[in-house]
Amino acid sequence: MAPALQKSAAYAWRILLVAALVYGALVVLGRFHDLVVAVFLGLVGAAMLRPVADFLARAMPRSLAVAVALLGSIVLFLGVLSLVGEVVAAEMAGLEQQFGDGLSRIESWLERPPFRLAPKALTDVRARTGQFLSSHRSALISTALSGVGRLIEVLTVFALAVFCSVFFIYSGERQWRWFCDQLPAAARRRVEIAGRTAWGTFIGYTHGIVLVAATNGVLVGLALFVLGVPLVLPLALLEFFATFVPLVGSPIALAIAAVVALALKGPVVAAVVIALIVIIGQIEGHLLQPLVMSWAVRLHPVVVALSVIGGAIAAGVIGAVVAVPLVSVLWAVRQALRRDGTRGAGATAP
User: Which of 18, 168, 245, 268 could crosslink 46 through cysteines, CB 3.0-4.6 Å?
Assistant: First the structure.
């Protein structure tokens, strides 16, 4: 066999093995969806709040520092959601009229060249939508009632995530040492190296992606404010959370902002918002994301894209969010164990 073909085959089966392991992990994550979400959010909370708790612990007992850090973050999060709700409620009355007028302008614009849409086509669509809602009222009511059960499930997951965060922040290192002590002595060192590498990589990725999300949210908020698009705060917050799904989340959030701009401010402003999708995508892809990956591990954009799509296929939205940090952690652990094995081989060589 030719050396190049032999080398390609060696890389190919390793890539297939890693892909199979990642897919299996994502399938397992999908099976235990709520539990995985709670633990993942607990790890994110620990990665973000552990430095805050360590700082506060210099002036107060550690248990009180953990409580202050967690309660403060929860109050901040609920305060932001409350502010968003107040903004939407305050602007809703005027926005309904503006949105209706905007749809009428879009309809008349689409009736002219080059689109030449049939007259009153959008009006027919709205009428049919109203008829659909009326005829399927019972199904919508049952869906709303099932949404109440889903809300209870979300609150349960949130409570479990807070519970996990408390112990991860307060005594995470002691828990990890206890786990390592239960292992055979021969495997203890490599497991400890893998665990510390995984946690360091996860912290770096979490801090970096939060920075990227905050930067995107601020940029979008400022741009929409300058353009005079309503609902600036909710749309900026949507951009913030959407950025946690790499590559695809931010364009989807900006597309929603473009639809709002089209209905309320016209096609010119909507075109500017669409241009923002390209500009912010370039900033994220060529400046912010490389910065994030330099903190954690460097992943090729193709690997990121395949990870997100594969995670979404295997475990839905949570899979898309978890896939990139999972692949980053696995790759970093593999590199760390490989370096450790190389050093060990060098140390024992004659």
Answer: 168
